[in-house]
Design a protein that fits this description.
This protein is mainly α. Helices cover about 55% and strands about 10% of the residues. Strand 2 and strand 3 form a beta hairpin. One of its GO terms (biological process) is lipoprotein biosynthetic process.
């Protein structure tokens, strides 16, 4: 065992199981992360719309009651989009051959980028139908997203999935299982980057606190699109950075492409996570530029 490595905590993926006749009810950490993330996000939204001083002169984009209605749409968008995103981006061949497996969400397999697309579509449909200011609504949803990201990555860690590449750093973790211990060139016990925790800290805590501070203390919500732009750019950067430490996706890696690039130029390339983050980076910087331009025009007038 490497002297500087940390052992994996003795925590299983299930919180508890209850047998009711022939049926077993199991609560998993991943499911709890989704539930708590949605509830915390909902409460952040409600608390934010109640503070009229945070918003432009036109007011908050939603009422607390409308947030409750939107939450149903968000849940559907997260589940359907997250599952279909995983199917299309990461396991297309398998699910085309076994389409009924797509419905088995409880077995795992969700994509953030797919879930983000699902939430975006659901929010757009709801916002257009209700004639809401879409940029301010996007700002509100962006503000509420980091807690779910943080909890989801913590659940990934507990589930012993999406671990990082082999590492000799003092905080490297010895993840259990044959797959985690299969490290080319390492004959001893293999320790890896806890890349799930890197993402939890960057996408969840750091980005989340920055958004809350700028929204509640620096008045960024009064410039529609600014908070959403920062969220998109911040997540895109954080995810692209952590991809440098994550274990390559097995379905994309081979002998000639050990890093698992989906776009490759010689020895350099981009992973699927980085490719999917590029549109978020572009949209984020675009919204920030538009928000800054709108703010400058408003100041000049």
């Amino acid at each position: 065992m490497p002297l500087s490595a940390l052992p994996f905590p003795n925590i299983g993926p299930d919180i508890f199981s209850v047998e009711i006749g022939t049926f077993t009810l199991t609560l998993r950490w991943y499911a709890l992360a989704y539930i708590i993330g949605l509830l915390v996000g909902w409460r952040i939204c409600v608390a934010t719309v109640k503070r009229a001083a945070l918003w432009p002169a036109s007011g908050a984009p939603l009422t607390p009651r409308q947030i409750e209605d939107l939450l149903t749409w968000i849940i559907i968008g997260v589940i359907v989009g997250g599952r279909l995103g995983f199917v299309m981006f990461y396991q297309r061949g398998f699910y085309l051959a076994n389409p009924l497996e797509i419905l088995k969400v409880w077995q795992g397999g969700m994509s953030f980028h797919g879930g983000f697309a699902g939430v975006t579509i659901a929010a757009l449909v709801y916002g257009i139908r209700q004639r809401m200011p879409l940029l301010s609504m996007a700002d509100l949803l962006a503000l509420a997203t980091p807690p779910g990201l943080f909890l989801g990555r913590i659940a990934n860690f507990i589930n012993n999935e999406l671990w990082g590449r082999p590492s000799d750093m003092p905080w490297a973790v010895i993840f259990p299982g044959d797959a985690a211990q299969s490290c080319p060139g390492i004959t001893d016990i293999c320790a890896r980057h806890p890349s799930q925790l890197y993402e939890a800290l960057l996408e969840g805590l750091l980005l989340g606190f920055a958004l809350l501070f700028l929204a509640w203390r620096r008045g960024w919500l009064r410039t529609p699109g600014a908070i959403c732009g920062l969220f998109l750019a911040g997540y895109g950067f954080a995810r692209s950075f952590v991809e440098l430490f994550r274990q390559p996706d097995a379905q994309f890696a081979d002998v000639n492409n050990p890093i698992g690039y989906v776009v490759q130029f010689g020895d350099w390339g981009l992973t699927m996570g980085q490719v999917l983050s590029l549109p978020m980076l572009a949209a984020g910087f675009g919204l920030l530029w538009l928000a800054q331009k709108r703010s400058a025009i408003g100041s000049a007038s």
